Amino acid sequence: MRNIKPTHKAIQTFYAELQQYESLGATNETEVRLAFATLLQHYARQNNLTLICEKSLRTPQNTTIYVDGMLTDNNFGLPRGYWEA
User: Fold this and answer.
1) Helix (H) or strand (E) holding 31
2) What is the pLDDT of residues 13-66, one digit of tens each?
């Protein structure tokens, strides 16, 4: 992974989007999730990963769960990380 700093443009854009959402009264997870997904997708692409939002997964008990997102390796299609807020 890359060394991510608060001065990076993607991080600055994320914070600006959060401020915009807040100025419009949107502060909860559901309301601001697009800003975080955009940030996560930006850095995922730099690491040859794809963000798949609202990914359904089967558990060993044969039930379905949904994670906010899954980072998938573009070379092998393997999951490399999960996002659950």
Assistant:
1) helix 29-46
2) 999 999 999 999 998 999 999 999 999 999 999 999 999 999 999 999 999 999
DSSP designation for 59: -
Strand order in the sheet with 64-73: 49-58, 64-73, 79-83
Instruction: Domain of residue 37: give its range.
Output: 9-83
3-class DSSP state of 28: coil
CB 48 within 8 A of CB 75: yes
Count how many domains the chain has: 1
Are 70 and 81 within 8 A, CB to CB?
A: yes
Whether 58 is in a domain gets the answer yes
56 lies in some domain: yes
pTM for this model (two decimals): 0.85
Contact 45, 37 (CB under 8 A): no
